[in-house]
Inverse folding.
């Protein structure tokens, strides 16, 4: 539990990176840091001494999610899947170009990756990917949302969507 009274807020650890982190992906004792043109793996087992384990260079990384031993990245215009069995060197497994290329985010539950589409010229919503075989992911369904999906996450078996001006949708 956090004690966030004004007198108790303090930094307990830090790690300087060459570029500004844009997004963080929690994976237990690991943190994957999206920096736009790369993803850095950070060991946070000891929060007072985060350790940069290395990373992978990629162009246009927008978002990501971890499930099991796999890292799912939105790398415009596709979803790329990496094995993180060796977190120092994530290994590329496969990629898929879902129908509709304007992708914003990804959340994973079981064998399904939920991918947010966000361009106004497209039907806003979700693409659903079957990822039971990470080597051969398939785009198998879509779900129209009440607005442009800006962010998404899964909690207790429910998918929460930030749908812009339409508000929040829970599916």
């Amino acid at each position: 539990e956090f004690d966030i009274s004004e007198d108790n807020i303090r930094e307990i650890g830090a790690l300087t990176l060459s570029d500004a982190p844009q997004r963080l992906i929690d994976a237990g004792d690991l943190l994957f840091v999206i920096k736009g043109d790369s993803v850095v793996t950070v060991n946070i087992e000891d929060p007072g001494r985060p350790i940069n384990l290395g990373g992978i260079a990629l162009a246009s990384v927008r978002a990501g999610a971890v499930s099991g031993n796999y890292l799912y990245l939105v790398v415009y215009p596709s979803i790329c899947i990496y094995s993180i069995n060796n977190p120092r060197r994530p290994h590329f497994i496969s990629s898929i170009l879902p129908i509709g290329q304007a992708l914003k985010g990804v959340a994973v539950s079981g064998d399904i990756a939920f991918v947010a589409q966000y361009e106004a010229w497209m039907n806003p919503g979700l693409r659903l990917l079957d990822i039971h075989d990470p080597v051969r992911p398939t785009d198998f369904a879509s779900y129209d949302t009440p607005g442009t999906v800006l962010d998404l996450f899964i909690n207790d078996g429910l998918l929460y969507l930030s749908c812009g001006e339409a508000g929040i949708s829970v599916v």
In short: DSSP finds no helices and 15 strands in the chain. The chain has a mean pLDDT of 88. The two ends are 29 Å apart (CA to CA). Residues 31 and 136 are 26 Å apart (CA to CA).
